[in-house]
């Protein structure tokens, strides 16, 4: 879900391609950060999640219909290897905002040599108005990223790192502890420009290198005083391997311990549970769910991950007031044109249904 930010690996060297892809038996990254359990829990993940939820109390849903954040222009594009022109990205931003999509993720400060589609993210930020940028988020991984993004006009910063130390080294080029230690400086820079900042926890459920992630480690990072300045907590099912019971339990536990923060669930649809997991997250207290047009996306630093949960599918499932058959038609046309341009498949079942011959159904696109 998150990308290499260009921070040097320990010792100053950038990790080579494939760095961090150690076999599961490798122990050099396990339990490296000072949080309970590391990434290899002794109990099953399901048992630990259930215990965590019981300890913190079951959270009730705070929002019957979660807000959608569309991540097409960041987590959607980054694996395609293709750079959309700045003006095209700006057009997509304005069309999505104009249709009523509440929030967008519009780019990242990942190294352009490693993630070429993100090369013009700051140009996109600079082209948008302050009013538009209030609904847009930018992926960052270091205080320096926040500083550069703020100078371009960004005010919403998604500060990301992995719960799994092995994945953080492969993706960010540093230990998880180093990312945690740097967060207060990132928070200070965001506050200096009147901005908001999220604590985005990739591999919150499973790691491609070390397997199941201990939920107590997630809870400990969210409770760490150095991450206390975050406005939101983002829980990312980076590999799309979580199931609704896991998602609900972890979201409930994080919600119970963080009543003042928004909770965001970022799911992938690798095993076909993206919508189910997002609905489970919302029922457990998540305020926002992430999706991308046509289910576009994937993680080059997370082997086995596939596309994001489809924005169209999430909207069709949750039916916010602003989402009408006419809006769906516009989103379908947008996603079809974009995915054709990128040479990517459309994974949305809602798009498939909207193009069906069930003409009596109001959500079917006619003509």
Automatic annotation (TrEMBL):
Top-level taxonomic group: Bacteria
Pfam family, one: HMGL-like
UniProt KW keywords: Lyase, Metal-binding, Transferase
SUPFAM superfamilies: Aldolase (SSF51569)
EC number: 4.1.3.4
InterPro entries listed in its UniProt record: AIPM/Hcit_synth_CS, Aldolase_TIM, HMGL, PYR_CT
Feature: compositional bias, Low complexity: 7-26
Gene3D superfamilies: Aldolase class I
Example GO molecular function: acyltransferase activity, acyl groups converted into alkyl on transfer
Positions of the UniProt region annotated as Disordered: 1-49
BP term (GO), one: L-leucine catabolic process
Domain called Pyruvate carboxyltransferase: residue spans: 66-332
Keyword Metal-binding: yes
Family, similarity comment: Belongs to the HMG-CoA lyase family.
Protein name: Hydroxymethylglutaryl-CoA lyase yngG
Organism encoding this protein: Nocardia otitidiscaviarum
